[in-house]
Amino acid sequence: MVAVRTFWKGHMRLALVTIPIRLVSAISSEEKISFHQVDRKTKQRIRYKKVAGEGGREVPSQDISYGYEVEPGNYVLFDNDELDALKLSSRHTIELTEFVDAFSINPLYFDRPYYILPDGEVAEEGYCVIRDALQSAKKCGIGQIAMRGKENLIALMPAGNGLMLETLRYDSDVRDADDIFSGLGTQKFRPGLIDMAKQLIEERSTEFDPSAYKDHYAETVREFVKEKLAGGETVAVSSGEEAATGAGTVIDFMEALKRSVEKAPAKKGGRSEPKRAAAASTKRDPVKRSKAPEKSAGRGSSGSKGRSATTKKKA
């Protein structure tokens, strides 16, 4: 078995049967092309910091809370401990509450796939029983799981010799296709157009083979990188962290003044009034915000939605 990083650990429950499991991502990012942003002039890596206020004061992680905006400019604040204390059974257990036909879920609702593995030898028997039962019944289990800071709707289904979990979008997250496509398809076609289109489709029909398709953009970028390497077009890029400690450019002008005053030698018999004044000047008024648009309430879920692949379409 290939060693992969565990993304989530918990239990899968079916009635009174509880099985220890772990999730690993079904998506690999090894072949993904990614770039770092670099300052063209200084050849330093561009980094992002968590800042607040007009002067861009950096805020340490322990001082960051989470705000839910109830109206423009007014928030209800939560700390990490308060959010962690929320009692959700789905934080540690996936309870399979119902089962649906394996192909009855509209692909529009599929979000992100994970592989499910039994967590330990003792869990393997129960894991395989559920896998084989789902295969035989041609069903997939529906439940919920709390991860990535929210509670996700999930579908659990057989995949090869194991089980796969697919996070699903909630009904309120999906736009109604009837609203998007209203007014289309009312015109009359010339005779024979549909037959000719069907003929073209039949001539090009085959079994889907994902390995036959390549990311041409990524391949072109890799070739471009090789060309630049062969031509000696490489530069040394620093992390840019020296600037954050004051050795390089200081972005906050008021902070720079404060540091300058603190480092300057005091005059004999002089008072330290300027230092206090500089420190006091770093206090800033809250940032004024423009009025945000009102949030629209999500649509309620419908029992009939998600059963047909033709009812919804993501815009």
TrEMBL record:
Homodimer. Interacts with LigD. One of its GO terms (molecular function) is double-stranded DNA binding. With LigD forms a non-homologous end joining (NHEJ) DNA repair enzyme, which repairs dsDNA breaks with reduced fidelity. Binds linear dsDNA with 5'- and 3'- overhangs but not closed circular dsDNA nor ssDNA. Recruits and stimulates the ligase activity of LigD. Belongs to the prokaryotic Ku family. GO terms for biological process: DNA recombination; double-strand break repair via nonhomologous end joining. Keywords: DNA damage, DNA recombination, DNA repair, DNA-binding. Residues 298-309 have a biased composition (Low complexity). Residues 261-315 are annotated as: Disordered. Residues 261-297 have a biased composition (Basic and acidic residues). PANTHER family: NON-HOMOLOGOUS END JOINING PROTEIN KU. This is Non-homologous end joining protein Ku. Residues 56-185 form the Ku domain. InterPro entries: DNA_bd_Ku70/Ku80, Prok_Ku, SPOC-like_C_dom_sf. It comes from the Bacteria.
